[in-house]
Amino acid sequence: MLEHNPAPTPALIELGLLPSSGILFVGGEPKVGKSLLVANLALALASGCSGAGFQVPQARRVLICQFELPTSQFAARLEPMRKPIGSAADSNLLVDTEAAGHLLSVPRGLDHFLHAVRAAKADVVVLDPLYSTHDQDENDTRAMAASGSARFNQLRQQIMTQSECSRRTAQLAIRRACQEGTIVHDNGQYRLPL
User: Fold this and answer.
1) Where are the extended beta strands (E) located within the chain?
2) Residue 128 sits in the same domain as residue 150
3) What is the pLDDT of residue 149?
4) Are residues 76 and 167 in the same domain?
5) Residues 152 and 105 both lie in one domain
6) pLDDT tens for each residue of 47-83
7) Number of domains in the chain
8) What DSSP assignment string belongs to 34-73?
9) 3-state secondary structure of 140
10) Nearest 10 degrees: CA dihedral of 116, 121, 122, 128?
11) Using one digit for the tens of pLDDT, what is the confidence trace for 83-102?
12) pTM for this entry
């Protein structure tokens, strides 16, 4: 096989960072700049301009489904990143301004995303942050693989309602409580320790 010298498959971001039919996950602790990195990658892909150590062979149509900021704030975030490339990305960078509230795990939500991708004729789709596109516990492999765990959702909703916090903060609180042993995740349910 090595004698045949197969040509490497071209990637959307070289050197093999984002394969043509691949998935790129950017993960890390909260507030370390993941969304800024992803926005910069989206602009590079949409403009076809290489930069920050990333090689982008050609411009691609990019659809950003972002859930954290209102559209005007997101546009303001993109503006300083856009300055070095000018209008090069403008015709290829699209933002789904109605993504919030749609879940990939629900037929209506999945239909929304599929329609948005088709309408944008997107080559690349950015979901930022990923946890906003589903209603599962990201740290529970079984929950992520299953169609839904109302028990986790109910606990998270109770925390959000009682403490008036965000969905992400509630998820982090559940994770921390499990790590500290103040609640126990047992057979799909969350309960107090015995």
Assistant:
1) 11-13, 18-19, 62-66, 93-95, 124-128, 184-186, 189-191
2) no
3) 42
4) no
5) no
6) 998 876 778 889 999 999 988 888 889 999 999 988 8
7) 2
8) HHHHHHHHHHHHHHT--BTTBB--S---EEEEE-SS-HHH
9) coil
10) -10
11) 888 899 999 999 998 888 88
12) 0.67
